[in-house]
Design goal:
Blueprint lengths: L1 E13 L3 E17 L4 E19 L2 E19 L5 E14 L2 E2 L5 E2 L2 E15 L2 E2 L4 E17 L3 E5 L5 E5 L6 E13 L3 E12 L2 E12 L2
Antiparallel strand pairs: 1-2, 2-3, 3-4, 4-5, 5-8, 6-7, 7-11, 8-10, 9-10, 10-13, 11-12, 13-14, 14-15
Length: 218
């Protein structure tokens, strides 16, 4: 089992309507149980973030700051077959965007969104020993995803005069593709440093993530 807390993860999000920057703090718990022919792995995480959004509404610049709290979990089953491992599983996420007031004095009310995603794919990795103390492990994976549960991105906005209106974000395709690649350097079997890339792709949506991880096995 692994416990981890990540601090100050900075993200920039670009869209047609404007740009959003986010600073998030994430903690999660990960576990894996091995059976004779397959394994089960799972994760539960909590994150909180601060968002700064700048957008244009009918030619008027509107800025806002708000906070989001999210919880997520996944469960995956895999069956190792040499250097290849097919996997199947599901991910779940629930997030709360708290009420805020933007620079146009509009009150955007709190909203909760939930999402469930099924995934299936395969990963490949192979450890190559360089000497008795050092080895390298290249790896790659590709998955197909499908959002079987998702809420409409509806926000209720209240003007200062008491009038209200609703806004709804554009829904992305339910189907998507995720792929990754990376390499790990392992020292004496218990210290591992890895460099990884994860890409997520849907129609009109692209997400690129790079990570550097250091793990010490007790």
């Amino acid at each position: 089992m692994i416990l981890k807390w990540e601090l100050d993860t900075d993200t920039d999000i670009s869209a047609k309507q404007g740009k959003t920057s986010a600073e998030t703090h994430t903690g999660f718990m990960y576990g894996r149980y091995n059976f004779d022919a397959f394994y089960l792995s799972g994760m539960f995480g909590v994150s909180r973030g601060k968002y700064n959004e700048a957008k244009s509404v009918e030619g008027i610049s509107v800025n806002s700051k708000y906070r989001v709290m999210s919880m997520g979990a996944y469960l995956v089953a895999g069956m190792p077959m040499g250097m290849f491992t097919p996997e199947i599983g599901a991910r779940f996420n629930s997030s709360v965007q708290y009420e805020y007031v933007d620079t146009a004095n509009q009150i955007v009310h709190q909203k909760t969104t939930k999402k469930g995603t099924a995934l299936a794919g395969i990963k490949v990795e192979k450890e190559v020993r360089l000497n008795k103390n050092l080895s390298v492990k290249p790896k790659a994976d590709i998955y197909a995803t499908y959002d079987f549960k998702r809420d409409h991105g509806t926000s209720i906005v209240t003007l200062r005069n008491g009038a209200e209106y609703q806004t709804q974000s554009v829904q992305m395709d339910r189907f998507g593709v995720e792929m990754g690649a990376g390499v790990s350097l392992i020292h004496k079997g218990n210290t591992e440093v890895s460099l990884d890339y994860i890409g997520k792709f849907k129609n009109d949506y692209t997400n690129h993530t790079g990570m550097i991880n250091a793990i010490y096995h007790f």
